[in-house]
Amino acid sequence: MSGTFRLARVVRATMGRLLLCVYRVRFVGREHIPSGGAIIAGNHVSYLDPILLWCGRTRPIHFMAKAQLFDMPVLKWLLPRFWALPVHQESADRTAIAKATELLEAGELVGIFPEGTRVRHGGADALGAARGGVAFIAMRADVPVVPVGIAGTELAWPKGQRLPRFPRVTINYRSPVYPGRFTEGGRKERVDGMTAEIMSQIAAAREAAREA
C-alpha cells in the first residue's frame, strides 16, 4: 500500500462505507467501467457527488478539483492524499491536462464534471452548459468516457444549503463513449460532437437513476 494514499484507502474502507449506508446508495451499471483508463463524467448538483462516486469504487478515482481548494489550510494537505488533482478553471490548464492524460494512459480512472461546477437545474431541469475538457482529454489520451447520472444528492446537499439531509441516492453508469467514434471535421468539431453525446448520455443516465 502506497504511503501517500494509505489515509485515502483507510477512510474509504471505513467512513466511506458508512456514508454509502447512510445515503442507501444504489449503484447501477458499474460493469460499464472498463478495466483500463477511463474518464468518469457525471452531473453535478451537490458536494456529495464526487464524495459518493469516490467512495463507491474499489479502484481510485482521481477527481479534478478547482485549484482554489488547494489553497485552503487543511484541504491543500488532504486533497492530494485523496487522489485529487488541482485545475484552474478560468483557462486551459495545461498542467492539469497533462497530469490527467498521464494517469489515464497509465490505466487509472479520472473524474471530471463537464459542467465545471455545481449547477442548480432550471425550469426544464436541463443540465448546465458543458465545457469541452472531458472530450478533449479523452481524445488526447485515447480513452473512453463513462457517463454517470446521479439522483438524490440534489436533495441531500445542494448548492446553497449549509447542512446535509439524508435521502436515498442512486448512481447510474452508462455504456462508455469512445473518442474513435468522432471522426468528422477538425478537432473542435470532434470535441463538440463528443461533448454533446456525453451530455446526452449523462442526462439519460440521470433520468434512469431517478426512476430506479
Question: What's a concise summary of this model?
Answer:
The protein is of the alpha/beta class. It is 39% helix and 15% strand. A 7-stranded mixed β-sheet has the order 1-7-6-2-5-3-4, with helices on both faces.
Task: Choose one word for the global shape.
Answer: globular
Oligomer: single chain
Under the CATH scheme, which architecture would be assigned? 3-Layer(aba) Sandwich
CATH class membership: Alpha Beta
Spatial order of the strands forming the largest sheet: 1-7-6-2-5-3-4
Low-confidence parts lasting 5 or more residues at pLDDT below 50?
none
Strand composition percent: 15-25%
The chain-level structural class is alpha/beta
Characterize the biggest β-sheet.
7 strands, mixed
Could you characterize the architecture of this molecule?
It is built from 7 helices and 7 strands. The model has no long low-confidence stretch (mean pLDDT 89). It is globular, with a radius of gyration of 16 Å. It starts with 5 loop residues before the first helix and ends with a helix. Helices cover 39% and strands 15% of the residues. The chain has a 7-stranded mixed sheet with strand order 1-7-6-2-5-3-4, sandwiched between helices. It has one domain (6-211): Glycerol-3-phosphate (1)-acyltransferase, CATH 3.40.1130.10. It is of the alpha/beta class and 212 residues long. The longest helix has 25 residues, at 187-211. α1 (6-22) packs across α2.
Task: List the defining traits of the structure above.
212 residues, Glycerol-3-phosphate (1)-acyltransferase, seven-stranded mixed sheet, 7 helices, 15% strand
